[in-house]
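Researcher: Let's walk through a ligand-bound prediction step by step. First, I give you the protein sequence. Second, the SMILES string for orotidine-5'-monophosphate. Third, you return the three-dimensional complex as structure tokens. Ready?
Model: Ready.
Researcher: Here are steps one and two:
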Amino acid sequence: MSGAQTASPPTRIRSFGERLDAAFGAHGHLCVGIDPHPYLLEQWGLPGDANGTRSFGLAVVAAAAASGRAGIVKPQVAFFEAYGSAGFAALEDVLAAAREAGLLVIGDAKRGDIGSTNDGYADAWLTSGSPLEVDALTVTAFTGVGALAPLFDRAEANGKGLFVLSATSNPESGALQTARTGAGESVSRLVADGVAARNTDRTRLGDFGLVLGATKRLDDYGFTADSLRGLSTTPVLAPGFGFQGAEYSAIPHIFGPLAPDVVVSVSRSILQHGPTGLAAAIDADAAQVGEVIS
Ligand SMILES: O=C(O)c1cc(=O)[nH]c(=O)n1[C@@H]1O[C@H](COP(=O)(O)O)[C@@H](O)[C@H]1O
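Model: Step three, the predicted complex:
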């Protein structure tokens, strides 16, 4: 054999935005939350322990993958964390199963700290081969969008994404998030503009998105029609449907120009159908979402 070898070009890592766009195209916009509330474990006939959360999570992953109409899942870390190391072991199994099934995984851990600590979170959640590897992570910017730089950088390098809380769905969010800065913009918008600025290639769906609750009027949170247009190509993670009161039919009205890039996230109102009704509930909700976002 000759010593001369042709070097193969390095494989380009697909960005999170590209993969999210592909998931939208192949499966639609529905994201099924994996929230193993203790009352749901009981309702599903599962033990109220880490094994229960594992069985619950694996069942949701299997149903989403089998339906083909939900290409994204969002495990809520809190309900696994409640069982300590055994809960994290269960979460690792659920994440591995979701990855194996080809689902896009948004880890809902709402991390965010000073920059040097965010490096640790990037190691844990956004690094290929890490036990808790996900495709995208929810984070808070209370320490400042700039403090998230290690997470943005690592996500970009590894083909991962972030969803940063901007206008959250809970009733208490307004006092803080609608507060105005010295320059007169709302805290929600300050965060949104900072995140959008990290999406440098505006010709494609970005890797960095915003959490905008579907229960809110975005103009109350300081977003004008123009500012929403300026956020185009920034993906949106939208919780608040079902149990929190928002309806799928309102998506175009709530999100305006951002509606085509919305991840429609729903947990309890699908999960309450139990293991036997889950598949039908996913199909029914996906059909409704498909009618408003094509
Ligand atoms: O980041 C989130 O997903 C999130 C942000 C937000 O503003 N509101 C919100 O409800 N969530 C999460 O979305 C899920 C909503 O659950 P359901 O109300 O059961 O659909 C929970 O896991 C919440 O923690």
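Researcher: And what stands out?
Model: The chain has one domain: 16-269. The mean pLDDT is 96.
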